[in-house]
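[job 0412] stage=complex_fold ligand=flavin mononucleotide status=START
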Amino acid sequence: MSAGAGHPDDPVSRAEDEGAHEPPSLRDRLRALPTFAPGLPTLDPDATPSDPATLFRAWIEEAIDAGVPLPHAMTLATAGASGEVHARTVILKDVDPSGWWFATGSSSPKARDLAENPHAALTFLWPALGRQVRVIGPVTPAAPATSTADFLARSEGSRAAALVGHQSEALTSRQEYRDAFAGALARVQRGPTLVEPTWTAYALAPTSVEFWQASDDRGQTRLRYRTVGHDWEKGLLWP
Ligand SMILES: Cc1cc2nc3c(=O)[nH]c(=O)nc-3n(C[C@H](O)[C@H](O)[C@H](O)COP(=O)(O)O)c2cc1C
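[job 0412] stage=complex_fold status=DONE, emitting structure tokens
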């Protein structure tokens, strides 16, 4: 069937129609958004390991396999001595017996917060799997050799970006940054073993790790591991 004049598929009548109505408000659009697609995995608390790192590793491997964009991106929340809370995205570098690893410059605001108050929180969101993980605990800077190794494992561009420094300070112009970056890149290319001395790897040693799983019937499951002495205690939380 062809779309004749006045048919809703006709671009003219569609434009008139759109002009006649207010576009939906952001508030309405936000409330109309779907949450998770069907076909989510499930979380059976009785089948979970005794330590959270093992379950976390399984979940992030599943997020990688599922093609979740940036599955290793996590929100790091910190609060310095003033109590003002700051949150930003950083990249997870590893999970090992020391904890959940990330890296940044020791003169950045987040590092200053951590120097004043080591307690921090990490949050991962893997929407395609209906999963969130929250990790809480104190953060410790690594020994210099570990930070150096992390720095040297970065790409040339990432090393140059770190060498530029001044993270989160006010910038006068984009050109000022471009010039600084070009200079840093040239230094990295001339000296492949050059290390930015403030670059620091940090490990968050968890005292609590919570796994949140949405389900197709909307009954979420929350499983929290907490340290009790040297052991982990597992328990369910009300969603
Ligand atoms: C996807 C993504 C990954 C990021 N990873 C890091 C990172 O691993 N380390 C880092 O210092 N900043 C990273 N950033 C930048 C931080 O979010 C932040 O802008 C910067 O570190 C300054 O934070 P601060 O002022 O709170 O110290 C990342 C940003 C995004 C969007």
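Residues 38-152+197-237 form a domain with the Pnp Oxidase; Chain A fold (CATH 2.30.110.10).
[job 0412] exit 0
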